[in-house]
Amino acid sequence: MNNTRFPLISVIVPTYNQAAYLPICLDSVMFQEYPRIEIVVVNDCSPDNTTEVMKQYLTAYKEETVSYACNYDQASETVERCEHFRFPQEGRTLKLIEHRQNRGLSHALNTGMEQATGELVTFIASDDLLLPSMLTELAQAIVENEADFAYADMHIVDDAGRILRRFSLPDYSFENSFCHWYLLGICKLYKKQLHAVSGWYDPDILPQDHDMYQRFAEDGARMVHVPKVLANARIHDKDRQVHNHSPAAWSKLYQQAPSLFSGPAPMRRAWTKTLRNRFPSVQGIAPCLKLCSDFTGSGLHCTGIKAWLDARSPPGYGKVSLPRTRDDAVQSQEAGFPS
Questions:
Q1: Three-class SS string for 228-240?
Q2: Cα–Cα distance between 201 and 207 in angstroms, integer?
Q3: For residues 188 and 124, what is the distance between their CA atoms, to the nearest angstrom?
Q4: Domain-embedded: residue 2
Q5: What is the pLDDT of residue 157?
Q6: Domain end among 207, 239, 260
Q7: What is the pLDDT of residues 151-200, one digit of tens each?
Q8: In a domain, 3, yes or no
């Protein structure tokens, strides 16, 4: 990366009932090697002592000092210590946003993203950890590859922080990352402007990151994989599982996740992208999408859709060729959905 320009990075930390882990998580962001970071903590009305923990952290961040042995005075036979602030005092901002009622992870993410002022953004669960070079290396990957979204591998760790395994992700292709299972992971960084194109995290979908980043990809975001471990993702015993990983949420998550990479969803999204290329107006897309409702797993009855499109395509467009299977949808995505 060009050392003369470091775009501001906003790190959103949604938290719910994770007060025991939150300070360690914030430390891992504060002590990143990257020089310009905005941290936005969104407390989703946690019933534990998260608010008090955050107040203490905000005070420590501004005031707490530490020291180190820096000189031995032979005359007095004493070791002199040099004192400095514990936390970086330049290139860091930290703000806390409190939800008055519990609204769920997607709402917490959207609250944070809407408040973020960075050109690049990411979020980290409040019980996970970023390794020190994570933001630097992912920002560099975005710049060097002219990408919009970068992601890396991670370690899966237990409650005590012991490494259970390495989670190595595939190099990016739409099929590798979205069509078999969600394989972009949690260690990521992307341009905030992607939200202006693809919208925000969907509160009705539990695998909200899968859904959001698939929408990024379908809307043309350029993605790149950094094959290095740059974060630790924590898994908990059952009594510590909250948000998406609470026992009550797992069954719904597993019901919703397959619909994002199998069945009609990828095809409908591929059609939507094709339609948006031709018809910028959402009102113009809706009647056509309604015709897609008779999709079956064996194929698409799209005679009516093609006729509707061919009759309404702006001048200069050829006849419409819509994807009929998931493989066709993947091929259309890899080709960038030419209009």
A1: EEEEEEECCCHHH
A2: 10
A3: 9
A4: no
A5: 96
A6: 260
A7: 999 999 999 999 999 999 999 988 888 877 778 878 999 999 999 998 99
A8: no
Tell me: do 304 and 249 sit in the same domain: no
Domain that holds residue 250: 9-260
Listed as ranges, residues in the chain with pLDDT below 70 are: 1-4, 237-339
Residue 4 in any domain: the answer is no
| Number of structural domains the chain divides into | 2
pTM exceeds cut of 0.85: no
Tokens 């470091």 belong to 6
Alpha helices in the chain (DSSP H): 22-30, 50-63, 105-115, 134-144, 174, 193-198, 208-218, 247-261, 264-278, 282-290, 303-312, 326-334
AA letter at 103 = R
Residues forming a β-bridge with 121: 10, 190
Can you spell out the DSSP letters for 47-78?
Answer: SSSHHHHHHHHHHHHHH-EEEEEEEEETTTTE
Residues in Cβ contact with 250 at an 8 Å cutoff, skipping those fewer than 6 apart: none
Q: Are 300 and 324 in contact (CB under 8 A)?
A: yes
Q: Would you say how long the chain is, in residues?
A: 339
